[in-house]
Backbone:
């Protein structure tokens, strides 16, 4: 959504139209600068190889989940089951591999199938049974939780070292997992910008009725989003397995569900759907990762981190909201209190002799 | 475009269409024929079933009975997409655009052109541009975000979208409801172009003028049943109205009630201005109806909003009954004795999931909570005097027809016993019968000495009801005309065409 | 179309009022929850008839009261079109605050409770004002508040609660009036009944009507003179105050533990939705929301009485919630236009 | 969040091979899946139960320096002058960890004043395994830690990260829960979960008539360390004539505990309660009071609120202990390692339950401590005592 260009309007207006995505990346830059200064005051360097690696590796896990979450949120849905899907996936991966490098491909396929299947359930419950996504995915999460608690009394399975590389190796300063996450992100961006289903996600989120009347099978789009979201969570589960060397059910306690939603919203995607994108989400994830690293370097009390994170998320969204309000009021015909009024911006007009038909931009 | 059909070919034949919702039959065996190259008007009161019929044709609803034949072949559209693929496209009554997406994305929504399975944005833009050029809409750009367009612009995008399907049949459900006369002209030209190409157009409107201007034949529905299909040239507007309403309507605009006389100035704006408006001077006397005319976006609604505290006047003064009024919120305006019937009924006027009763007493609850219950006792009386048709006061308003919804909005404001009332497009999208009821109500109010400011895009209404007409152009008062002015003068002022003859 | 012209509504007779109530309970979106409640209770009584004895029921209501109070608070927020995810954290925070400030001294009970109410009001105000004035979606506002409260309280106490509650503080949640049949009439139940009565009255008052209207269509409400920001902020304050009361009951009932309140926000929201309220606002009945909470608590009891393995319970709970909400959605869905659009059209190859 | 704090001994170090320099060494599949359940390894169970009766080496006045059957290793390879100490903490999200964390900081302060420790760098993973892995990696990458102390949040999942830390060449000290590797310089823990579970279960068996009914209350499923406690209890109950009414998960939430106990009491008598962690024991006792039932035989923990309730009501009870003083040991171990002194490879600390006999003594000692404090915190001799633990 960053390409929207106002055809008419003053330069001032055009500047204000700076896309949400750009703004998030600017915010990321801001956070980096401020963080770097704070870290420098502590006589350290935020951009050292070690710290850069740290930032990047912290972003990968949340990144996967948030990419998926972006898709469902764009469709005006929500997925609160991602944490459980991650946990289940890590267990399926580790128990399927069971230490045998030859079984890695099998495990990956199994994880993606199971995760996709859960996404399918989520999507069908939301689109066919018309259960509010909040409740639907919360319920599905509980069901998975019941299964996990019954089936696994603790970490299970073993991941061969070849697959652990996914969690631990690096290419230069870039962890492999982050690289994969970025590749998935690019794939997601292309998906949204280049495929019909991607286009239709914006439509379904923007207005399901409009989408339906335009011949879009909204149910399928929504289900697709949920399937992709769960698959992304499944990949996150694979990463967990690689990093843990085993599968762990307790991942669901780590709050990735709400954190991923926070990252998506921080990334400028509208919680009500229809606007936003993955590029912004990645910036949102990176902002959270930078904060984490900076807090760690500065040895900020972990509870203070929660306070700051809560504040920052709310503040960021407040800023986006402000921009939104400004934009609505952007049609100025008579500036301030000048009294005699400025000139009307030449609105786009039908090609007819009648002058000044004000079909101006709203 | 599939083959050029001769004007007489019957493209579409609907026979005995039946439809019911929740056990209530809303269409009783309706027949309809559409010929290539004709404009076929469909009229009827609110709730007559026009939109329902159209949605059956569009594949949004499925008929319970009856048949649809396209080119002599029986068809059944299970989904809007199938209708579109068969060359039937529809401009629906409600807007069907995504404000956050571009014109091109909206036009091609659901069938974006692809190359190698990927969306070909370049071609999409090029095709949209070609389509727009073809219709002479060069000022509209494919990459404009729809939310930045005016209502008229959005309406045009809707029509372009319908056209882009290579449609042989286009149905339009009140396409002009949101347009000012000036933009209606543009639509006329589009329709003429389509006719030339042999497209059959099914046209729903409550504006009789358009029916006579545009249509070749007209089908009249009443209570879901077919009344008649006639050639437009064979019928007068009185007859048409009689068929539609089931009774003759003597004079469309009721006369002033005896004893109505313009009293003191109740509502007064001096030099009002803000970002949208400048130098607004306006007086409305008790017992007087003043109309605000102007083109789309000329600032009429803005005046209403500024008066009512939704927006502000940053300059100038407003007085109500001599007392200065600086409403910073609707609440303050209501307290001062002002009422505003908004132009967007569903978006701004009603809480659709709530009952008629809850809607009708909402203002009382919000502004005068202490006297709400007492005030609410008046409401049943008001509703029945408005001849509201409903299944009881606990019915949710979303199930009411447009005209009845408007009556609920009016009742809500009348319950506050306002000193002055602003009516923004009070008859938009409502049928003749309901319109007449609204006009009568306005006469009654002015007989009681209420100051009425009416905003309207329908010139006949402005000319028929107003004691004075204030014409707005570009946020400024372009001139003031007495009752009995003619359409040309008003339009001239509104467009700024021939400014000589009018006084400022 | 069979329609009637609106007649002036006659004064409503007592009979029609009762009829109205029945229609509310067994019609519309709340039918499912009452049906489910009856089924669950019937099942409990069958499994364990002694549960039907008054003392057991009293004990059950005592433990269910806090969640019901939370659900009522959440109802106000949800019906106005918002979410309050911060209540769980707030309950936890309030209990910890109480323990730390009272520190076992009876004399401090009342001042600390007043302070807690003040803190609750403050949290509600912040939630409400950020949501309404800064236009941050409440999901995010309250998510942020949840994090802030969680962190701030632990920051303050160094991670785990300190201090101790006084006996007087524990009375409302734990104690009651001893009497014959029921053994003990819990204070918690009386407080609950009081809150329900007030809540029903509030929802019937002008404020309640404007609140639902705001949830339904905030623009229309605004144009009707509703001070949307005020109405919504007040809903958040109500939610926070009720969360505070719930905290007093929970703290009283079970004392301080580090985990108090965790996850309660989701249970409360689930209860409200189970009670037929629409997320997004404009629909729902406060009594049904409370019944939703009661149903959830009863469900937990049933699981226990059935000796269902505790690990499997979340799964059963999930299935029941989804099924109930889906069923209610089907019930409520009146044919609107989208309903009739089939979801499986032909492939659209262009 | 995960709220447990106990170690696991499932990682029988002898089973694991030395970690190579490959940071992603083969994760071990613990071969402990016996018919008795995933979390019951008879050898470990037997060893822990036996260790309870072995007198630890060292001064009983400083139990945190005692060791049961220590097997000393030479740490000369790690001897160095640097004294930056890095600590990756799983979390401080429950009272047990909070108490221990204060003790640890107090210990560090003492040693810092003595100049033995320079910078003390801490990262807290807030119970998130993945975060803790990143935290450990950050320490490794920073390259200036002279020793890394790790309190893993979960045994199995942190194994690769700990191995990576070992591979970086710094001495790694693991305490509380273990990992499935023996690459670290020392692994410090009290006897363990089996012993803890058994202490309570044996007490119930001894103090209840055959046929009595026992309710087991547990925190969370799936936490290996808690599963060990329950597995040991099951083993002992299995050989007894007690009837186990059920085992319920409470999330450690007092209200939940009270609800569950009340519901059981509505169905019939409950004679004894076994808990896998005692911080909610008071709520369980209150459920009996509020429903007018006789007190059960209780298994609690050395948490003060429980000890006080026990004293006040004079019920039959025992407080198994999961020695909180272990938080001091890793700090001391680090300085010992830097000095090239020998430390036990597996440093097993004593873990003695509190019984009615020594209960009052511990209550006296901790008379001014808050209720969520742990009696065997072992910090009485530190300069910050008692203020540091009182107003935390
Ligand atoms: N470009 C715009 N940006 C934001 N708001 C706009 C824009 N154009 C119009 N509006 C709002 O839309 C409403 C209608 O605008 P305005 O008063 O200019 O039109 P009008 O003359 O009443 O025409 P009509 O009512 O027929 O739409 C007002 O509330 C105005 O503030
Ligand atoms: N989805 C629906 N569910 C129930 N009733 C409906 C539905 N759609 C339309 N109706 C009812 O069917 C009748 C016909 O409605 P329809 O919208 O076709 O009228 P219309 O002629 O288009 O009216 P208007 O001029 O107000 O647009 C009305 O009484 C309306 O209330
Ligand atoms: Mg219609
Ligand atoms: Mg207008």
Residues:
């Amino acid at each position: 959504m960053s390409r929207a260009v106002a055809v008419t309007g003053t330069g001032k207006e055009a500047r204000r139209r700076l896309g949400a995505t750009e703004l998030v990346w600017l915010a990321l830059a801001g956070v980096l600068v401020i963080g770097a200064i704070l870290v420098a005051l502590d006589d350290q360097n935020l951009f050292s190889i070690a710290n850069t690696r740290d930032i990047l590796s912290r972003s990968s896990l949340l990144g996967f989940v948030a990419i998926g979450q972006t898709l469902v949120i764009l469709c005006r849905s929500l997925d609160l089951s991602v944490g459980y899907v991650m946990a289940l996936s890590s267990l399926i991966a580790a128990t399927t591999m069971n230490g045998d490098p030859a079984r890695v491909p099998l495990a990956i396929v199994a994880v993606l199938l199971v995760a996709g299947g859960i996404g399918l359930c989520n999507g069908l419950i939301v689109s066919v049974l018309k259960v509010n996504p909040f409740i639907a995915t919360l319920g599905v999460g509980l069901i998975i939780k019941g299964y996990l608690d019954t089936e696994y009394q603790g970490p299970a399975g073993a991941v061969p070292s070849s697959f652990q590389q996914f969690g631990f190796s690096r290419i230069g300063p870039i962890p492999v997992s982050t690289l994969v996450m970025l590749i998935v992100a690019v794939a997601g961006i292309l998906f949204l910008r280049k495929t019909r289903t991607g286009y239709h996600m914006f439509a379904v989120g923007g207005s399901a009725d409009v989408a339906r009347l335009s011949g879009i099978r909204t149910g399928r789009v929504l289900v697709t989003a949920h399937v992709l979201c769960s698959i992304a969570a499944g990949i996150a589960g694979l990463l967990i397995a690689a990093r843990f060397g085993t599968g762990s059910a307790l991942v669901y306690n780590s709050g990735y569900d709400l954190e991923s939603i926070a990252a998506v919203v921080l990334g400028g995607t509208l919680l009500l759907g229809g606007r936003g994108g993955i590029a912004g989400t990645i910036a949102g994830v990176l902002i959270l990762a930078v904060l984490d690293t900076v807090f760690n370097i500065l040895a900020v009390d972990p509870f203070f981190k929660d306070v700051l994170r809560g504040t920052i998320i709310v503040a960021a969204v407040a800023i986006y909201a402000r921009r939104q309000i400004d934009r609505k009021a952007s049609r100025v015909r008579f500036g301030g209190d000048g009294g005699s009024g400025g000139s009307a911006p030449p609105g786009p007009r039908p090609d007819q002799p009648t002058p000044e038909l004000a079909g101006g931009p709203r | 475009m599939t083959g050029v059909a001769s004007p007489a070919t019957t493209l579409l034949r609907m026979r005995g269409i039946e439809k019911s919702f929740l056990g209530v039959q809303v269409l009783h065996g309706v027949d309809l024929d559409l010929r290539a190259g004709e404009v076929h008007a469909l009229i009827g009161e609110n709730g007559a079933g026009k939109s329902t019929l159209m949605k059956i044709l569009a594949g949004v609803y499925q008929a319970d009975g009856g048949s649809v034949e396209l080119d002599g072949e029986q068809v059944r559209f299970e989904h809007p997409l199938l209708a579109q693929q068969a060359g039937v496209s529809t401009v629906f009554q409600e807007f069907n655009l995504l404000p956050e997406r571009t014109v091109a994305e909206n036009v091609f929504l659901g069938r974006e052109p692809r190359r190698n399975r990927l969306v070909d944005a370049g071609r999409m833009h090029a095709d949209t541009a070609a389509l727009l050029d073809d219709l002479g809409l060069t000022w509209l750009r494919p990459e404009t975000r729809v939310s930045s367009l005016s209502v008229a612009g959005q309406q045009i995008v809707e029509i372009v979208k319908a056209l882009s399907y290579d449609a042989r049949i286009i149905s339009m459900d009140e396409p002009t409801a949101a347009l000012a006369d000036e933009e209606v002209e543009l639509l006329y030209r589009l329709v003429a172009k389509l006719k030339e190409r042999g497209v059959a157009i099914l046209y729903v409107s409550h504006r009789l003028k358009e029916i006579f201007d545009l249509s070749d034949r007209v089908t009249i529905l009443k209570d879901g049943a077919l009344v008649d299909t006639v050639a437009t040239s064979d019928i007068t507007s009185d007859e048409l109205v009689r068929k539609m309403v089931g009774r003759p309507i003597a004079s469309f605009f009721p006369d002033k009630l005896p004893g109505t006389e313009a009293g003191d100035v109740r509502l007064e704006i001096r030099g009002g201005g803000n970002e949208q408006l400048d130098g607004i001077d306006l007086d409305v006397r008790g017992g007087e109806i003043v109309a605000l005319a102007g083109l789309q976006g000329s600032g009429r609604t803005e005046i209403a909003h500024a008066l009512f505290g939704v927006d502000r006047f940053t300059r100038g003064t407003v007085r109500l009954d001599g007392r200065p009024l600086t409403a910073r919120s609707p609440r303050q305006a209501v307290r001062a004795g002002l009422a505003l019937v908004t132009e967007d009924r569903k978006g701004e006027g009603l809480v659709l999931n709530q009952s008629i009763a809850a809607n009708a007493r909402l203002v009382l609850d919000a502004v005068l909570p202490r006297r709400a219950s007492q005030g609410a006792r008046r409401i049943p009386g008001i509703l029945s005097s408005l001849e509201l048709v409903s299944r009881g006061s606990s019915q949710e308003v979303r199930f009411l027809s447009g005209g009845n919804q408007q009556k609920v909005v009016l009742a809500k404001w009348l319950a506050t016993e306002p000193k002055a009332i602003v009516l923004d497009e009070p008859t938009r999208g409502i049928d003749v019968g309901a319109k007449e009821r609204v006009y009568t109500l306005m006469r009654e109010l002015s007989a009681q000495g209420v100051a009425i400011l009416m905003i309207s895009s329908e010139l006949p209404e402005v000319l028929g009801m107003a004691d004075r007409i204030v014409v707005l152009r570009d946020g400024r008062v372009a001139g003031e005309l007495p009752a009995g002015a003619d359409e040309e003068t008003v339009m001239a002022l509104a467009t700024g065409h021939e400014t000589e003859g009018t006084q400022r | 179309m069979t329609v009637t012209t609106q007649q002036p509504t006659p004064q409503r007779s007592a009979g029609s009022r009762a009829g109205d109530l029945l229609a509310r309970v067994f019609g519309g979106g709340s039918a499912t929850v009452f049906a489910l409640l009856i089924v669950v209770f019937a099942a409990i009584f069958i499994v364990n008839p002694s549960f039907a004895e008054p003392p057991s029921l009293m004990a059950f209501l005592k433990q269910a009261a806090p969640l019901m109070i939370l659900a009522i608070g959440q109802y106000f927020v949800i019906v106005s079109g918002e979410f309050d995810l911060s209540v769980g954290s707030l309950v936890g925070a309030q209990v910890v605050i109480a323990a730390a400030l009272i520190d076992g001294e009876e004399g401090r009970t009342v001042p600390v409770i007043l302070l807690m109410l003040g803190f609750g009001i403050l949290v509600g105000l912040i939630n409400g004002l950020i949501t309404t004035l800064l236009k941050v979606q409440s999901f995010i506002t309250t998510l942020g508040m949840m994090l802030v409260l969680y962190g701030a309280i632990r920051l303050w106490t160094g991670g785990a609660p300190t201090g101790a509650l006084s006996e007087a503080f524990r009375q409302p949640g734990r104690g009651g009036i001893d009497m014959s049949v029921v053994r003990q009439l819990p204070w918690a139940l009386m407080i609950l009944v009081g809150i329900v009565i007030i809540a029903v009255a509030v929802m019937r008052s002008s404020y309640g009507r404007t609140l639902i209207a705001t949830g339904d269509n905030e623009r229309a409400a605004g144009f009707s003179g509703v001070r949307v920001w005020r109405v919504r902020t007040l809903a958040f304050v109500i939610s926070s105050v009720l969360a505070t009361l719930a905290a007093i009951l929970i703290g009283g009932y079970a004392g301080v533990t580090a985990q108090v309140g965790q996850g309660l926000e989701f249970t409360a929201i689930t209860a409200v939705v189970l009670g037929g309220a629409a997320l997004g606002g404009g629909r729902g009945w406060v009594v049904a929301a409370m019944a939703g909470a009661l149903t959830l608590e009863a469900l937990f009891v049933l699981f226990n009485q059935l000796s269902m393995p505790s690990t499997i319970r979340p799964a059963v709970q999930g299935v029941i919630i989804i099924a109930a909400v889906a069923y209610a959605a089907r019930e409520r869905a009146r044919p609107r236009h989208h309903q009739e659009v089939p979801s499986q059209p032909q492939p659209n190859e262009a | 969040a995960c709220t447990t704090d106990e170690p696991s001994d499932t990682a029988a170090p002898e089973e694991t091979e030395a970690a190579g320099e490959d940071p992603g060494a083969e994760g071990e599949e613990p071969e402990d899946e016996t018919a008795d359940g995933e979390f019951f390894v008879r050898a470990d169970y037997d060893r822990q139960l036996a260790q309870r009766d072995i007198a630890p080496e060292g001064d009983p006045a400083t139990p945190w320096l005692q060791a049961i059957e220590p097997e000393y290793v030479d740490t000369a390879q790690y001897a160095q002058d640097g004294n930056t100490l890095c600590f990756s903490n799983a979390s401080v999200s429950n009272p047990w960890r909070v108490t221990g964390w204060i003790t640890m900081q107090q210990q560090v302060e003492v040693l810092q004043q003595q100049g033995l420790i320079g910078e003390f760098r801490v990262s807290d993973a807030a119970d998130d395994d993945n975060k803790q892995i990143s935290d450990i990696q950050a320490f490794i990458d920073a390259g200036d830690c002279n020793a890394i102390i790790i309190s893993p949040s979960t045994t199995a999942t942190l194994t690769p990260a700990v191995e990576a830390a070992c591979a970086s060449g710094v001495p790694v000290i693991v305490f509380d829960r273990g990992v499935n590797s023996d690459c670290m310089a020392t692994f410090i823990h009290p006897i363990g979960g089996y012993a803890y579970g058994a202490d309570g279960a044996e007490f119930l068996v001894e103090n209840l008539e055959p046929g009595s009914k026992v309710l087991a209350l547990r925190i969370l499923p799936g936490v290996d360390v808690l599963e060990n406690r329950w597995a040991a209890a099951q083993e002992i109950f299995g050989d007894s004539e007690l009837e186990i009414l059920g085992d319920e998960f409470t999330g450690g939430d007092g209200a939940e505990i009270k609800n569950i106990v009340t519901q059981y009491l509505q169905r019939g008598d409950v004679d004894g309660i076994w808990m896998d962690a005692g911080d909610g024991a008071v709520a369980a006792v209150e459920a009996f009071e509020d429903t007018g039932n006789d007190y059960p035989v209780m298994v609690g923990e050395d948490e003060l609120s429980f000890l006080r309730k026990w004293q006040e009501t004079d019920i039959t009870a025992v407080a198994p202990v999961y020695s909180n003083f272990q938080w001091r040991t890793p700090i001391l171990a680090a300085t010992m390692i830097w000095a090239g002194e020998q430390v036990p490879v597996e440093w097993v600390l004593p873990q003695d339950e509190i019984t009615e006999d020594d209960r009052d003594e511990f209550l006296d000692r901790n008379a001014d401590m808050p209720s969520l404090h742990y009696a065997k915190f072992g910090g009485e001799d530190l300069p910050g005592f008692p203020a540091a633990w009182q107003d935390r």
Q: What stands out?
A: Strands of chain C lie at 4-5, 176-179, 183-186. Residues 228-254 of chain C form the longest helix (27 residues). The two ends of chain C are 41 Å apart (CA to CA).
